[in-house]
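Complex record, two chains
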Amino acid sequence: MSQTKRKPTSAAVDTGETLPDLAELCRIHEIGLDLIDRSHDLDELLDRVLEEYQSRLAALPSDALDPRSGAPQPESLRKLRGLVMFATQAAALKEKAVAALELKRRATMLEATNARLDGVLSALSSGVMIFDATGACLKANEAARRLAGTKDDAALARLIESGVPHDGEAEIELPDDGGGRRVVLVSRRAMAGDPGSAVVLLTDITQRSHAVEERVRLEKLAGVLKTLSVLSHKINNPLTALLGRAQILQSQQSADPRVAKAAAVIEESSTRIAELIRELAQVVREGRQESVDDLLDMSTTSGTTGSAR
Amino acid sequence: MNVDVVRQGTAWRLSVRGCEAIDCANAHLVKAEALRLLGNASDIVVDLRGVEFLDSAGVGVLVGLFKHARLRGGRARFCGLTPGVRTVLELIQLDRIFEIVDDAEAAVRS
């Protein structure tokens, strides 16, 4: 059997020509994996990229990029192709690393901003709570939890939802640490740029509420004192006349003894009334609730005594 | 061929004059002179006006300047790219690695 020399087929030629490309592809793939490993650190990535770049540039024949040399040789083209493939991968990874670095920078800034916000919220004596659109509490400072008197955010959210109008405010009574009640002014405002979310401000107005009650009491006391002042003045004039006439009747020797006795009772009672009016005047001058209470107490006692007589 | 380095603000502006190409014939001279003049400068603006062509050796010079700045904790920016230089940098994707600016004056101010 004669052996004939086989002519290389075009496939064999192609295979022979592409093997270096295949090796280059594998090499670039290997470098690509290395770059991906380093892509979490932009500096490290760039160092590796530049190192590989320099190595490839040094191995690149001068005609590969120089149009003055005419058409590049196949070997030059192969190396240039390898450089471009590597560079494309490297550039894409570099851009991702830059984006990741920017994201990290912004995340760090955001964390710092959040920490500052938490610091500000902690320093506030008023309570601040932030609710999302579903009613879940996203943030609450210490004062809010103290004023709310509960760690149950959901229960508090329900209380606010039912008791405080949107973009309005309401006074709510909540339990305090001592077993008593505190009055809390709760203001609810929509969060700009975040539909459905709300920021809630809680302010303890228990003291303010007491102050309002005290002011109302003092206003009432002032009214009572004014009335007493007017009454004592108006009673005093006819009383003086009454007392004077009783004294005249007693001084008349010819008067009927019964009249004289009645005049004496009138004089005594008038004198007593006059004393009461002086005490009233004293109470008005002092302007104290205790004085009014003492006077009323004394009057009741006197009245009882008088009835017994 | 002449390499100038001038300080402008915090940046050092490096200009290559008197040569249309940075190639294997002069790349080693350009690189050596540039690095000598830059010393420890870390903020570099490389002005490539007047350079019409780069071959692989010329590209190597730019990569070397880029590394020089990075090694010193700074940065290198490239400006004044002619169409020929831009084409080469785009072909080998270095335009995506390097920081390329259009205006040298703005670059030294930023």
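Note: The first strand of chain B starts at residue 2 and ends at 8.
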